[in-house]
Amino acid sequence: MPGCFKKTIFSIASAFSLVSFLLIVVAMATQKWMTGKILCQTGVDLVNASDPELVKFIGDIYYGLFQGGKVRQCGLGKRVFTFTVFPHMVKSLNTSLHVAIILFLCSAISFALISFGFCVHNIRKVPYRTIKGPAGICLWNLIAGLFIVFAVTSFIAAVQLHQLTERIANFRENVFRIVILEEKYEDSFWLCVASGTTHAVNMLLMAASAIRLPKFKTKTEEANVTPEDIMY
């Protein structure tokens, strides 16, 4: 059986692995990866709007991995639109990159669960194989963390290099042209970043589990038996 110190380490690591799993699931389920401000450029050009009047042409947009919505203002009041990425926007986006983000996150979920299982196994007994011990857990956390890094960087690349927000904002806009004024990464995105952090912490915990604490032995005093003690 593992000692109390290692049991504590593996218990904390299992909790972090479970938290990582939950964070990714919540991030994929919620649709607030990105928000922004959008400007109806066509409406501005039509009426030659000045700075004080631009407020009437500024709307909002939000989206996640699977769906989103926008509030467009082109001088005729607010128009609310909702959309789904699949299957409607497949031709408008960089589909391969978008699918890769989802696959990276699904892979991270799998390895987070594997890490959780091996941590629980190490709490119960000392493994005989290295792959089942701290080295294996460190490997699974490294792989899960890399998948999260790939997902996060791919999403940033889609936003910054492939103009993801602009493509979504102009989806099915045949008359009006929408310009992006502001973009902001939201909670769902940062949940993925936090999930990657938990795996980094787990790797530090596995390194700490290799520390051997000194064992304190109490010396028992030897009893000195004298002839007087025997008489009594």
Automatic annotation (TrEMBL):
Signal sequence extent: none
Main location, first listed in the record: membrane
GO cellular component term of the entry, any: membrane
Organism: Leptobrachium leishanense (Leishan spiny toad)
Source organism, top-level taxon: Eukaryota
Any single biological process term in GO: sensory perception of sound
Family: Belongs to the clarin family.
Membrane topology, as annotated: Multi-pass membrane protein
Protein name: Clarin 2
